[in-house]
Design a protein that fits this description.
The complex is a heterodimer of chains A (434) and B (308). With 434 residues, chain A is mostly helical. Chain A folds into 2 domains: 106 residues, 3-Layer(aba) Sandwich (D-Maltodextrin-Binding Protein, domain 2), CATH 3.40.190.10; 262 residues, no CATH class. Chain A is built from 15 helices and 4 strands. Chain B is α/β, with parallel strands linked by helices and 308 residues long. Chain B folds into 2 domains: 219 residues, Rossmann fold, CATH 3.40.50.300; 65 residues, Alpha-Beta Plaits (2-Layer Sandwich). Helices cover 33% and strands 31% of the residues of chain B. In chain B, strands 6-7-8-3-9-10 form a 6-stranded mixed sheet, sandwiched between helices. In chain B, α5 links the parallel β7 and β8. The longest helix of chain B is centred in the middle third of the chain and has 16 residues. The chains are: A mainly alpha (434), B alpha/beta (308). Chains A and B meet through α1 and α7 of A and α2 of B.
Chain lengths: 434, 308
């Protein structure tokens, strides 16, 4: 046991102290959060304030159309017609949009207003304009019909449809949860591949530097292989925990500074008649209350261990079979194809997480780490994945890894002492048998 | 079984697929001796060494160390310097030597002390924090030698320890080997360098085509392959020398040192004795020196490998 521990320690410390590890540990999650933040920022549109020229044909919207700092409305002079208003809009660089409200807009229920632009307004700006026009028309009609605003609010509805599992009523909107599952699946793919390849590289390093013969004159090759796999796996876990911590801290910091904004902006933009709770608040509710994070992390841990052990053993065998890294391609490709296939199947799984396809992909050990996380994210229960399926999948994964590790160790033991020739699949088969 | 044998190799067979690497090899090695393991490339030496190191397992036969069958605990008693040297290139000298020492059963503190001792002894204590990749090949060899003997093995297996070393470092390592012998370390020296075998080995065995074909004390091996060749330095003329004794010998070589002095190498055939030969020539030439040509290990090696 002593020497296994020594090797684990060496494998762990030499990697954790590397500059690339330290950089990856902190830069990786910051990049991820930053990337998500950037996408959100860009999709918000880079325009903060809109100067909008309003051409109100029927002269009915003045004082009714809600004005705000962000969407600053200017009224086209009364003496100008629509064409002249357009000329004015074109000439004035400060104006971003021209809103044309035809005179019959207020009379019928399905008229079209027009918005002319120089550069296309963001979708949120488009939404905002639509909502203030609707609001204005509704307010006009409320007044015209002598209805109290309170009465109107009580009548006005905005319905959200939650898709809910009858057996487990807490479990709703599972498709949306699938997105979280997708993120986890991508991470597990990334971690399994990255760290099992590190095992392979470690084996190649020992083989090409020829220190292998000295090490295996002290410990058996099997112990060396197992210790290396454990040591590198611990590095993976360390990196994962650092990532989770950094991601949590940065997102809390970012959310703290952004959430009040989202809330206040969605509250501010509510006029006297709007009753929708705001999309951002819904996302926050979803992220904080509908995703069961502890089980996501626990199953990520279990499937990372299982998937990593499954692949690391085989990667060690590949490393032992070759003399240099460039020779590994022919063996790596067939090994990574199942994982890439699993990634490509995620959208079908999200579509129907309890289908036969989803079942098999989450039971077969080579794809299960990726697919099962998607199904688990979508909720444990009859609508997505049953407990027994998870237990079976984990058992299959661990049994398979024991078998592949045993096979790999046979290839490994022969491979590390075979120098100067590129092993073929035939050689591997021979080594397995002997 | 006599206690003085540290290693006893009995009926070892090992095949790789159809290729027979070792065929019924028997070797005994006395404690505290330096044992030469000789043989051409591919003869099976490395396979035998790997079996002793428990890197691979024999198909048949036994290896005993101190009379006990070889098992895991014995790796701590063996030090091994493989022919293909290797260290972790990115690891620092000190850290790496301590790690390898610990793998051979030393605790951290012992290992550190001993690495320090050896680095100081070789005057390279400043290398502790250097990476192996920053050392020259010869420097790395020194570090490698230190890591091999750090745990004070009872049995030291050195595969071509002098290859790649400059004469000064060669001498340094040779002296360390002799010093270790004085401290009762048994050493197996696998090499092609016959001079070093003659210089430092007590016994040797020659393996050829997976079989052991010869073993014994160096002295006995040379005697066994001795030939009846003599070198005679004389003053006089060549004709008088060659005609002095009629038959029973052969002139192998004749050189002149100067106009009058010559060196002849002769081989005595049949029953002719050197004293009779000298009696025959003593009245014709003036004898300066008579010396028996004993065979070198090189001769023995070539003789058995080519003719056996």
């Amino acid at each position: 046991m002593g020497e296994i521990w020594l090797i684990i320690k060496r494998e762990y410390w030499t990697r954790v102290r590397k500059k690339t590890f330290i950089i990856m540990s902190f830069l990786g999650p910051i990049l991820i959060v930053g990337f998500i933040g950037l996408t959100a920022y860009l999709s918000k549109g880079n325009k903060n304030n809109y100067e909008i020229l309003v051409f109100d044909e029927g002269k009915m919207f003045d004082g009714v159309l809600r004005n705000s700092e962000k969407y600053n409305l200017k009224w086209s002079p009364d003496d100008k017609n629509y064409e002249e208003a357009q000329e004015l809009f074109k000439k004035d660089d400060n104006l971003d949009l021209l809103l044309y409200l035809p005179s019959n807009l207020i009379k019928t229920n399905s008229m079209t207003a027009k918005c002319l632009y120089k550069t296309i307004p963001s979708s949120s700006a488009q939404k905002h304009l639509t909502s203030i026009i609707n609001e204005a028309i509704e307010l006009y009609r409320v007044n015209k019909n002598n209805i109290k605003i309170e009465t109107y609010r009580a009548i006005k509805t905005r319905v959200n449809l939650d898709i809910i599992d009858v057996e487990n009523q807490e479990n709703k909107n599972i498709q949306r949860k699938g997105i979280i599952g997708f993120i986890f699946a991508f991470f597990i793919y990334f971690f399994i591949l990255m760290y099992s390849v590190q095992v392979m590289k470690g084996v190649i390093e020992e083989k090409t530097s020829r220190i292998i013969e000295i090490i295996i004159s002290s410990v058996s090759s099997f112990k060396l292989m197992i210790a290396k796999i454990i040591g590198v796996g611990l590095v993976g876990f360390t990196q994962f925990f650092i990532w989770i911590s950094v991601i949590s801290i940065t997102s809390i910091v970012i959310l703290n500074s952004v959430i009040p904004d989202i809330y206040s902006s969605s509250i501010q933009s509510q006029g006297p008649l709007t009753v929708n709770s705001g999309e951002s608040a819904q996302i926050i509710e979803f992220l904080f209350y509908q995703i069961h994070w502890p089980s996501m992390f626990i199953f990520f841990g279990i499937y990372f261990i299982g998937g990593y052990l499954l692949y690391a053993g085989m990667m060690a065998a590949i490393g032992a079979a070759v003399d240099e890294e460039t020779d590994t391609q022919q063996f790596l490709v067939p090994l990574t194809i199942p994982m890439i296939f699993a990634l490509s199947m995620i959208s079908s799984v999200i579509d129907d997480p309890s289908s036969t396809l989803s079942f098999w992909l989450s039971e077969i050990p080579f794809t299960s780490p990726v697919i099962m996380l998607v199904r688990i994210a979508m909720g444990i229960g009859p609508s997505s994945v049953e407990i027994w399926e998870i237990i079976l999948s984990i058992s299959l994964l661990f049994l398979t890894f024991i078998f592949t590790t045993w096979l790999s160790s046979r290839i490994y033991a022969k491979g590390i002492l075979s120098f100067g020739k590129k092993a073929s699949y035939k050689d591997l088969l021979k080594w397995m048998k002997s | 079984m006599p206690v003085s044998n540290i290693i006893q190799i009995q009926d070892i067979h090992k095949s790789f697929g159809k290729h027979k690497a070792l065929d019924n090899v028997n070797i005994k090695i006395k404690k505290g001796s330096i044992f030469g393991l000789l043989g051409p490339n591919g003869a099976g030496k490395t396979t035998l060494i790997r079996i002793i190191n428990q890197i691979i397992e024999q198909d048949k036969g036994t290896v005993k160390i101190h009379g006990e069958l070889l098992e895991k605990k014995h790796v701590y008693k063996i030090g091994y310097l493989p022919e293909e040297r290797g260290l972790y290139k990115k690891m620092k000298v000190g850290e790496q030597a301590v790690y390898l020492g610990q793998l051979k059963g030393l605790n951290n503190k012992e290992a550190k002390q001993r690495v320090k001792y050896w680095l100081e002894k070789f005057n390279i204590e400043s290398w502790w924090n250097k990476r192996i990749e920053d050392l020259s090949k010869g420097m790395a060899q020194k570090v490698q030698f230190i890591t091999t003997i750090l745990h004070q093995p009872e049995l030291l297996i050195l595969d071509e320890p002098f290859s790649g070393l400059d004469p000064a470092n060669s001498e340094l390592i040779k002296n360390e080997i002799l010093q270790l012998k004085k401290e009762k370390t048994t050493i197996i020296l696998s090499t092609h360098n016959m001079n070093s075998v003659e210089e430092i080995c007590d016994e040797a065995s020659i393996i050829n085509k997976s079989k052991k074909i010869l073993d014994g004390k160096i002295h006995d091996l040379k005697d066994k392959y001795t030939n009846n060749k003599w070198t005679i330095v004389y003053i006089g003329n060549k004709m008088s020398f060659t005609n002095a004794v009629w038959g029973g010998w052969k002139l192998e070589n004749h050189d002149s040192i100067n106009e009058k002095t010559h060196v002849a190498t002769i081989e005595l055939l049949d029953q002719l004795k050197i004293s009779d030969f000298i009696k025959g020539i003593v009245n014709h030439v003036e004898i300066q020196e008579v010396k028996k040509n004993s065979p070198s290990m090189q001769d023995v090696f070539l003789n058995v490998v080519n003719n056996g």
